[in-house]
Amino acid sequence: MTSENARHAGSGEPDPAEGAPRFTDKRRIDPDTGLLREPTPTEEAEAAAAAAEGGADDPVAHLDFETPDTGALAAAEALAAERLDELQRRNAAYYNLEQQYSGYVKRSKSEALVAREQGVAEVAEALIGVLDDIALARQHGDLQGPFLSIAEKLESTLARFKIERFGAEGEVFDPTVHEALMHSHSADVTEPTVGTVLQPGYRIGERVLRPVRVAVIDPDA
């Protein structure tokens, strides 16, 4: 080391041989003009080097990203739409089947009820003759002993199936429930009236099995 270099080294001053210290102004705004500074070639080189070094540290830089295959995507969407259409068709078929079954159950119950009522009506119509004999025997006082007990059991059993006897003298004549077998006239009535019940009627609810057979009294003309 020369004496000159030693002198500069000991004094703390910059060594002329090493050159003066360099300062890089990285401010983007020029403090003198207040305008945006254009980067110098040196700054551009340093920025490019820094970007290159940062790219080397990128963890996904080595991955090869392929462009999505639009054809495969379209095919997948078409397949999904097809499956959705199939599902909707199956749901509709299941709904229709469920509605058909529900309708079948309702019809079956309704038909069973009608069949039951029809069966009860046929049995009752077959027993009307027996019921007429019981009514006549009761009117003449001949229904006694075990026959009375049997008749009462029969009538109570029929009542459980809502089979009832109806018709009484003094009722207004109604052709929907009365059958006129005899006619007479009287000033004591103002409209056709049942004078005598010749045979009682029988019905199940609103269904008439046999109308009441009566003698009708008409008012005088």
Automatic annotation (TrEMBL):
Residues 1-59 are annotated as: Disordered. Keywords: Chaperone, Cytoplasm, Stress response. CDD domains: GrpE (cd00446). Coiled coil: none annotated. Pfam families: GrpE (PF01025). It is found in: Cytoplasm. GO terms for biological process: protein folding. One of its GO terms (molecular function) is adenyl-nucleotide exchange factor activity. GO terms for cellular component: cytoplasm. Participates actively in the response to hyperosmotic and heat shock by preventing the aggregation of stress-denatured proteins, in association with DnaK and GrpE. It is the nucleotide exchange factor for DnaK and may function as a thermosensor. Unfolded proteins bind initially to DnaJ; upon interaction with the DnaJ-bound protein, DnaK hydrolyzes its bound ATP, resulting in the formation of a stable complex. GrpE releases ADP from DnaK; ATP binding to DnaK triggers the release of the substrate protein, thus completing the reaction cycle. This is Protein GrpE. It comes from Cellulomonas cellasea.
